Amino acid sequence: MRFGIHAGPQDCTLDDLRRLWRLADDHGFHWCSVWDHLYSISDLADPARPAYEGVATLAALAAATTRVRVGCLVFCVGYRNPGVLCKAAVTIDHLSGGRVELGLGAGWNEREFQAFGMPFRPIKERLDHLEETAMVLRRLFDGERVSFAGEHVRLEDALCAPRPLQPHLRLWIGGQGEKRLLRIVARHADGWNVPFLSPEVFAERAATLDDWCAVERRDPGAITRTVNVGLAIGRDDAAVRRQEEKLPEMFGGLTEFVRPGILIGTPARVVDRIGEYARAGAEWVILALRAPFDWEGLELFIRDVMPAHLRPS
After folding, report:
1. % helix, strand, coil for the chain, step of 5
2. What would the pLDDT profile of 138-182 be if each residue is shown by its tens digit?
3. Where are the chain's structural domains?
4. Is-contact 103 75, C-beta < 8 A?
5. Are 26 and 18 in contact (CB under 8 A)?
6. pLDDT tens by residue, 192-222
7. Cβ-based neighbour number of residue 150 at 10 Å
8. Is the domain defined by 2-309 classed in CATH 1.20.1560.10?
9. Dihedral, CA atoms, 14, 310, 256, 111, nearest 10 degrees?
10. 54: helix, coil or strand?
């Protein structure tokens, strides 16, 4: 098992984020990521809550760390031209010394699209856009001159120079849709991420991904499988209850929706729960943390949970 930290750049300061990233960098985490939203999503009704932009925050993450892989789970393909996203990713790959991994998603927060004048298309069209973006990014990263005429993406003799510092900048795709999304993962992704699923549901989605890999004649082992989970950990049952009571402050109206994918309990229970995810096929467990960050709980996780599962990078 490898561990990561995923922190939304919202409802906190950049100093809070830097403290979190450096903790990850110094204590054996393999991965650190941000997300890509224009509003805070802890309270979808309040656009005045602060939220930083994803590409710029990823650059700050790369500059603040030296060891962890860095990425975004996930960049919304509807927010940027793919050439701009390609150049940003390659620039940050050079800034980080070759540690960038690029996550892509179809986008879901309709209010953000509407507020900033971007069309929020039906899900089929958003998935078409996602697949076209994945196709051209792979070719650009690999050094091709790309001409492409899709429904949503158009390139004419486009080239990305310089190329990524690493020989193969990996593409990730996030989501769990069984009919289309996981087939796109099977076709194009080096990594797959899904948030807040129970181990049982994660195992079902992983099996669907295996089925699509068979259809696409893709080695299922070529796709790294990861799950984002919340954390409500305490030294004893009373401390666990106190952390559970804080979840609505972090997740707002989504609290009950995400609860199946939150690691809740004492360190021993959290160790067992991570074992369930490992048996379900998760190769990495990524802590999806939201402000206000639970520094004491994170230290408890590092000291009493990670050693039971950690493998060398």
Report:
1. 45, 20, 35
2. 999 999 999 999 999 999 999 999 999 999 999 999 999 999 999
3. 2-309
4. yes
5. no
6. 999 999 999 999 999 999 999 999 999 999 9
7. 14
8. no
9. 40
10. helix
